[in-house]
Structure formats: structure tokens, C-alpha cells
Amino acid sequence: MLLSLAVSLSCEKRPEGGSYPSGGTTVTPPDPGDVPESSDLDICPISSLNAGEATVDSHSDAISRSSIALDYRSYRILGQDVTGVEVSVYPRMALTPDGECQLFYHKKEGTSVAGNRIYWMTSDDLINWKSNGLFTEVFDITDSHGNPNKQGFADCFPLTLDNGEMISITSTRAVRTVNGISYRENKEDAGLVIKRSSDKGNTWSAEFEKIYTGNNWEPFLLQKSNGDIHCYFTDSNQNLPGVWDGVYNNSGTALIVSRDNGKTWSAAKRISAKLRDQKESSYLFTDQMPTVIELSSGELVGAFESDKAKGGQDTDYHISFAYSGTDGEWDEVSATAGGPSDRIDYLFQGCAPYLVHFPSGENLVSYNYDGKFCMRMSTDAEARNWGEEITAFPETGYFWGAMMPVGTHQVFAAIGGSAKGMQIGQFVLNHDITATSRTVEVDGDNKEWAHSDEAFFVGSKSQAQMAVRCSVSPDKVYFMFDVLDSNISVNDYVTILAAAPDAVSLSAPAVRITASVGGLRSVETYSGSGWSEAADADVVVKTAIDGTTSTAKDEDNGYLIEIAIAKSLLPIDSGEIKADFSLFDMSAGEDSVQPAGDPSVWPKVRGL
């Protein structure tokens, strides 16, 4: 069942009084009579904004101020009624040339978490999904040892190529253990197989073509900027029975390459492996579940699940990183020492990493840890240093997730492994924006604010969310707040916090402006010891509403708040300010772009 996102209050009537949160200054709650009459509004969701053409590495020097936020309205848990399976695992997805998302996964089957059959579903909006049933089915074979067996499939990875065609590569093996012979010994039956689509994913080839033979897991596909297709996979072809008791998880990451859009493939070479343990002439390696991005410099960055435990001990998974160099080519690593030499081992705990590179320069890694889907953003453009961990989805008990870029500012993510269903949702990149030069008629109407305008997003806590855009004229700075809210209250409000562009802490001459559907609520300046009201501040606010504030029982659309501020009021220096924006909603509390008390991480508004 889809997760209900509607948030409602327990009371029938909205509060019409009480304390109005605003920090240092006490502000009288707005009179409901100040609220404009309801009208039909075209409130812009964040998905329709930031539509301008991306500039490569435009924010590489400002990554410390960039952040990622869940679009709560996009969040769903897809249960069996949608996926067609009780427990869906290993989601992998791609956008077709027509913009449809195809998501592949398989189900937990008995004691096999990985499963043996591939299922798929499709969506035009990443919200509503159609189950397409089985993509590949198990079939009978006689395995390489002459035993009756079943050919199974796992980890199907789709990719849309630059030429508009699509391919999918899947791990395969003989799944049954017959006469004591498991898939590990049936290496000739294992490998990677490819399917193709020449009609934008509408149909796929009925038959598989085998492009690699040997034990493997978790293929990952990347088409480089030069057109080469890289297929990385967990190389588990080497077994170590009898060396360490019960140890079979000897791994590393290997690569095969196609330079003709997937028609032919190179021989495999191992490109990343961390020496985990050694006993005489036996070497135990790790580095598995690979994911790779290409930076604008041409360097490839790989993230891997790496086991820190010694042979015979319990697993201790961490995330490790490796770097190709700016030539974008991986050297083959030693069979006894591992590599490459440029790597960062066991950086933090986690499993099943997934990397995304934004055109503007930021890098994002996801992984699961302690049953949670987690994310970190890099604090440098080279993806060598990573920020604080955030819990990306609210539900726990999940494993093996994936991400997919959507446009220049959004990422779609999914994670399975729970009987609750598959968690999915979109995440929005917030970073410095540049104001659009225009003189705005402040009338509470957003028609003159183009969809290509750059925008901030707030909306990870509840269905109430907002997009914030900025324009500038010779003497004014304008902000447009598009707020989607199905339960509007007179006590909901938005806040602008502005500080000098070099501010690292809250200090003079910071400014705080608060407005609600009833209009301007307060204008305050920071003196160094606290906030005080700014007398005769040149600030104009106009609002419009689509809904009601008198009852929580109806379904509202949201509201618009348009603000004009005299440039002389803002701490502008060299055409920039640091700014933070927050939304207070009666049903969910306050949500903001960055922590309100820490200007060191506030993004900048440029071009003022």
C-alpha cells in the first residue's frame, strides 16, 4: 500500500491565537481576517524549477555549502500490491529516452535473499508505478558438471546509452547445489548476460547474450563521456575453501569494457581489491558491490563495500574509495597485493554504496548501515572527503539501495529488503543560487517568475514544502515563496535569514524577515547580542492563498508569499549574501535549508 502523505490536525478548527514563533521578538499572531480570499493558484513544485542549463563544476568551489534534502511528498513505501512480491531487493533503475523510469528488482526466495528471478516496474512520474511482472525467469539446465540444475538471475542493471538505445546486464549462475556441487564450483554456468532494447525500452530482446563467464555479483554500468561503456562487477571467481574455516567471500572488483555500444566486450581485469588477510600463499581480498562516477576532470571514482574483518571472523563492512587518475583508466591490480595505490580504505561503516555526481560539482554517496538508508555529500569536488551521515529514509530494516540522477538537481533513490515494502523517494540538491535580474511587480502572483529560475527547496519533514526563488533590480531584492500545503494555518510562516557573505557565525549585520499568509510579521536585525525590531524597514509583502485557514478537514493546495526588500537593508557585499530559508508548519514544526544558527554552511545568493 502506498504510504499516505496527508498530514492533518486532530482538531476541526485552526488555532487563531497563541504565541507566534519568531525568536527574539514577540509577534502577535496574524488576524485571520488578514488572509486573502482563496483563488486557484499555479504553485510551482521544486520538480518544475532549476530547469536552466547546468554549468559544469559551477559549484565546485562552494561544495561545503551544498546539501541534500528528501522531497517528502515523493516518499512512498511500495508494497506487494505494487511490486508483486512480498520482499523486493536489489533495486536498479534507469530513465528511458522518453523519460519513463524502469526499475528492476527481485524477490527474496526462501533462504536466498538475492533471489533468482528478475521483476520490473515502470513509472512516468516516479510516484505512481505499474508492475510489469517477470523480466527474466529461472529455467532448467544441465550444469557444467552434468547435473540437472536451474539457471537463475540476479542484480539486473539497466543503462540508457548516449545513442538512445538501452542495455541491461544481469548476473547469472546455476543456482542449485547438486551432489555437493554448488554454484561456486559451476563457474562455467556463471557469468554476465546482456539484453538490448532499440525502441527506448518499450521492448527488450527475448534472449540473453553471455558476455562474461565466471562467478560474480552486482554488475554496475557507466557510460563515460568518451562513449566507452564500463561494466564493473564483484569478482568472486576465486574460492578459498579449507584456508579459513567457512570463508568463501573472497572478492574484488573487475571490469569489462565495450567501445561499440555494448556489441562486443573486452576481457575482464581486476581493477580494485583490498588485501584483507593472508595465510601462507593464500590471499583473502575484499572490495565488492562497486559503484563508479566520472568527474569532470576525467578521473573515475569508485566506492566499494569492504570487509574489514580478518579471515574466519564475523564480517565488518565499511565503505572504501579508489581513484583512477585523471586519464580515466584503471590499471590492473596485483594478484597478491591488491590496489590501486590511490585509495581510501574503510572510511566509514556501511554496505552497498552507490555514487552520484552532479554536473555542478557535488558528489553524493548512499549506503545502508544498521538497517538504515544513509547518505553523505562530499566536502570537496574530488570526492575524497565526506561530510556527516544523514538518515535519508525514515523506515529501518532495509538493505541494498540505489540512486539515479534526475535532471541536474534531483536524485531518485530506492531501497528494498523489508516486508514493509520498497522505500522510494526523490532528493533535492540545495546549493548557491544566482538571482535573476528583473524588476518584479510585488502582487502575490508568480506568473513573472520563470520556471528556469534557480531555487532553494525546503520540504523534508512533511507534506508542507516550499521552493524559494530570488530576483534583483537596481535597488530591490525580491523573493518568491511557492508553498505547497494541504493544511494551511494562519500560524504557518516563512523566514529569511541573511548574513554577510563571509559570515561564519551569527553576528551583525544579520537580518531576519518573517511573513505568513496574513502578510509581513516581523523585520529584525542582529546587534551582536540578540535580535531587535527594525523600525521603518523598507519591506513589502504580498500573499495569495489556495485553500482555507479556518478548518483542517478540507484539502488545501498552498499559498504564495512575494517579498521585496530594499538592498540597503541586506548585508550585501560584492553582490552576495549568505542566506537561509525556513518554513514553519503547524503540523510538522520548522524545516530549513541549513541549520538556522550556523551561517558557515548557509548557501549564498549571488548576482545581487
Global geometry: elongated
Query: Overall pLDDT, averaged?
Result: 92
Which value, in Å, is the CA radius of gyration?
27 Å
- Structural class from helices and strands? mainly beta
N-end to C-end Cα span: 47 Å
Query: Which percent range fits the helix content?
Result: under 10%
Major beta sheet, specifics? 8 strands, mixed
Number of helices: 1
Give an overview in words.
The protein has 608 residues and is mainly β. 1% of the residues lie in helices and 45% in strands. Strands 28, 33, 34, 35, 36, 39, 40 and 41 form an 8-stranded mixed β-sheet that branches. Strand 31 (465-472) and strand 32 form a beta hairpin. The longest helix is centred in the N-terminal third of the chain and has 4 residues, at 80-83. The protein is elongated and about 90 Å long. The two termini are 47 Å apart.
Topology:
Elements: E1 67-78, H1 80-83, E2 88-95, E3 101-107, E4 118-123, E5 130-136, E6 139-142, E7 148-160, E8 166-174, E9 191-197, E10 209-213, E11 216-223, E12 229-235, E13 253-258, E14 269-272, E15 274-279, E16 282-286, E17 288-294, E18 300-307, E19 317-323, E20 343-349, E21 351-357, E22 363-369, E23 372-377, E24 390-391, E25 399-406, E26 410-416, E27 422-430, E28 433-434, E29 436-437, E30 455-458, E31 465-472, E32 476-484, E33 493-499, E34 511-516, E35 519-526, E36 531-533, E37 539-546, E38 558-566, E39 577-585, E40 589-592, E41 604-606
Parallel strand pairs: 28-41, 29-31
Antiparallel strand pairs: 1-27, 2-3, 3-4, 4-5, 6-7, 7-8, 8-9, 9-10, 11-12, 12-13, 13-14, 15-16, 17-18, 18-19, 19-20, 21-22, 22-23, 23-24, 25-26, 26-27, 30-31, 31-32, 32-38, 33-34, 33-39, 34-35, 35-36, 37-38, 39-40, 39-41
